[in-house]
Amino acid sequence: MQISDKSANHATAGAGARAPLPLVATDFLIYLVLVLLVWATWGISQLELFKPSDDTGYWVGVAGAVMMLLLFTYPLRKHFRFSRSWGNIKAWFVLHMVLGVLGPLLILLHSTFHIDSINAGVALYSMVIVAISGVVGRYLYVRINRGLHGEKTDLETLQRQAGLGNQEARSRLAFAPQVETWLNAFEQQEKDARDSVLDALRRVIVLPVQQIWLYWRCLRVLRPLLVKMAREQNWSDADLRRRRTRARKMVDRYLTAVVRVSQFSAFSRLFSLWHVAHIPFVYVLIATALVHVYAVHVY
Fold first, then answer.
1. What's the pTM?
2. Interval 112-141 mean pLDDT
3. In this predicted model, which residue has the larger pLDDT, 96 or 296?
4. Of residues 202 and 162, which shows the higher confidence score?
5. Which residues contact 16 (CB under 8 A, 6 or more apart)?
6. What is the structure's pLDDT at 169?
7. Number of structural domains found in the chain
8. Range of the domain at 243
9. Angle in degrees, 0-180, between the axes of helices 197-205 and 237-298, rounded to the nearest 10
10. What is the model's pLDDT at position 289?
11. Helix or strand or coil: residue 248?
12. Same domain, 13 and 152
């Protein structure tokens, strides 16, 4: 049997090992919290504790506007030389995200989810678009934060451990040549992928589905082979379960590493496009917010 205890332990402890909380689970929790916060804000607004025009509603709006204004401290800290000594950039980014959530929530609470004028409507919808755009930007940013070098290192480490693509090393999946062929073909397909916007979208949307499909195809081939080897080598049920789990993890981590390397350039391309689209909405938001504030105080 080629999946030894030692190699499986390396696969678990190596660079390809997953973080305690996978990125997808983190995303799900964050977006769930955002949905709950919006729902809670709407619920409070329905209690009719204040109106946008009274003192309480006014100061809720001011607090939200100030938080939106403070969002610009992050690009200030990031791009201007005189501000580079103002603390850790990661802390500023976290503050930027927190303000980007609380500010719009307070503005929504101030509006009580009602639009009383054209200018207020334009300002509100601009803010919503900017906030949603910020959520998309965060999704893209965290996927390119480790850098291409880090993703490639993970994949190369798994390749060495598994012996895949290395003529000198015996593959850990030599007992399942079909699975080994599929994994190598999957990696080569992504290495040969074109660098275009459409292909970037394919790698972001379609590639994870292909990964899942190939993963289950590999498992369907591995299971009967492992059962056959268990009979031939008199494994106990516990041994079979352990080796089956390790084979599954090896395939899963390898496919995940290939996908992450392939998707890095795709997320980088989409992040640059996002940045181009995000900035104009920010300017529209600033302009309409200033007009709204002026109208409130003059009229």
1. 0.64
2. 81
3. 96
4. 202
5. 154, 155, 157, 158, 161, 253, 254, 256, 257
6. 42
7. 2
8. 5-18+148-266
9. 120
10. 80
11. helix
12. yes
